[in-house]
Design goal:
Belongs to the peroxidase family. Ligninase subfamily. By secondary structure, the protein is mainly alpha-helical. It has a domain of about 160 residues: Orthogonal Bundle (Peroxidase, domain 1), CATH 1.10.520.10. Helix content is about 45%, strand content about 5%. Strand 1 and strand 2 form a beta hairpin. The longest helix is centred in the first third of the chain and has 18 residues. The protein is globular. The structure holds protoporphyrin IX containing FE (HEM).
Length: about 375
Amino acid sequence: MLRPSLLSFYILALSSIVYAKPSFHAALQDIRIQARQQDGNNNHSVVLLADLATNGDVTRSGEIIRNILQTTAPATVDNSIVYTRPDAVSKSGQGGLDSAVCRKDTCCIWSYIVPTMVTAFSENGGTRCSALARSAIRMVPEFARDGSVGSGGADGSILLSAGELQRNENRGLGNYANLILSWRDTFRLYAPGISVADLIQVGAIVATVTCPGGPRIRTFVGRPDVDDRIPPPAEHLLPNPASSASNILELFAAKTFTATDVVALVGAHTVSHQYVTEPKYAGFPQDTTAGVFDTKFYAETGGAVPPVGVYSFESDKVLSTDAVTQPMWNDYAQPGAQTKWTDAYATAYFRLSLLGVQKLNGLTDCSGVLPLSKPVP
Ligand code: HEM
């Protein structure tokens, strides 16, 4: 059983006490890098977050989240976990969304929102995921860029803080941003508490499982939104396509991720397309199976020449050849690695989805509302 090291607790404690002081911050950065190295190259991060690090788990949700963060429980849910709307809603068959019994059940509203999302995220009769699904998946690391452990994160700031969405690094996310805000306006009529932070997060998980091969990642709701009077977070805290492998690993380590996590997470480029990085190849995907969440991306990145019609980001190429990350990369590139990769992706992604949320004990597990996962065709 994996347990968080004392060092990890030390990091969390330090980060909450001294985060604002630059000299301490530099020292903290060193400790985090050491922590990543000590975790080893084949392990996920087990660092606890927020109230789970300070108060432990005092609720059932807190316990489940702790187990997943410490990798003693899977971050995926299988297709047998299905949400059933409260009796009175399903029996009446009408007006369910607006009923008192639905309002009382936190997951009920999500059982109406999720099918709307699935329609937006599916393409070609459900055999691949759409451009909106890709935006949904990309938006998550974009908003997790701000600050360090315990600050910023999954708080909706990318849509709510003035000017953040318009930043260069967020180019191309405008259409999806508008869709999220329209979902918020529609569904808040029935559930005023729905947060933009949850819509972004649930949207990304629904988008992932809508792609054939995508994992069904455990889904919690209840994230509060950032106060929109607070200025947007700092820029440039996530890597860009020109970053070196060590720079990429350090920036993710500052968010508690190990090299194992990073290699798994960038596998999301299995469904991505690029538009602005290299205008000459605008619209090119990063592997030959567009819209499918498979491991082709690993096999097709890093060769001297990518397959015809594919564009590989430099940042992915350096990870595919770096001494630390290459072994894991090659592992996922092997035939038959699909489940190994999607399990690793889900574990790292689950952590990403909670960064910056202060009260993890207060979240509600609504995983049953997710659509069922589909195999790689
Ligand atoms: C080393 C870290 C990363 C770098 C440097 C990076 C860079 C990029 C770039 C440059 C684009 C294309 C922008 C364009 O030219 O239009 C892109 C797209 C995308 N990225 Fe990443 N990314 C990173 C990590 C991630 C992670 C961790 C995820 C998800 C977990 C992710 C998901 C996506 C998706 C889904 C798209 C496609 C968007 C679309 O097709 O519209 N990326 N990324």
